[in-house]
Amino acid sequence: MLRNDQLDTWDRDSFFHPSTHLSDFAKGHTPQRIVTGGAGCHIEDRDGNRLLDAFAGLYCVNVGYGRTEIADAIAAQAHELAYYHAYVGHGTEASITLAKMVMDRAPDHMSKSISASAGRTRTRPTSRSSGITTTSSAGPRRKRSSRAGGAIMARA
Questions:
Q1: Inside any domain, residue 66
Q2: Which of 35, 54, 139, 153 is positioned for an S-S bond with 110, CB 3.0–4.6 A?
Q3: What is the number of domains present in the chain?
Q4: Is 140 within the bounds of a domain?
Q5: Which of 62, 155, 58, 79 is nearest to 114 (CA)?
Q6: Residue 149 belongs to a domain
Q7: CA-CA distance, 12 to 32, in Å (whole number)?
Q8: For residue 38, what are the β-bridge partners?
Q9: Edge-to-edge strand order for the sheet containing 50-52?
Q10: What is the chain's pLDDT, residue by residue, as a tens digit (156 residues)?
Q11: Domain that holds residue 130
């Protein structure tokens, strides 16, 4: 971990912090915390403070930090094949197996699953189908827009 006064300055001058008044942050009027690690449901900053991560990585670290078995599984997959696209009938053992696991738990009227890391990647491939179904807490609904959010499962 780089430990010097420059890191504070670089953070204020160069890093975009969502939901932060950038001008106030740049001027030092808004608090700053540089996180260096995490274990379980806690994070630690570079000053040695151990804090409960009530944001859970803003909803993406629901399994906690420092999970060796998850890091090992990610590393094993990255050594084998980190990524390959799903266009034009291409698939990987990991993506096909995940799709099967999702569909085994999906509502009966769903038939396909797509996994992606970003909204545009997630919605563009399915926008060509006759309609897309998005899942939400309100239940499934049909849309013809490529701007649907959430997990997408399309009818074949």
A1: no
A2: 153
A3: 1
A4: yes
A5: 155
A6: yes
A7: 8
A8: 43
A9: 35-39, 42-45, 50-52
A10: 555 678 888 998 988 888 889 899 999 999 899 998 999 889 999 999 999 988 766 667 778 888 999 999 989 989 988 888 888 788 888 888 989 999 999 998 888 888 766 555 445 555 554 355 555 555 555 544 333 344 444 444
A11: 87-153
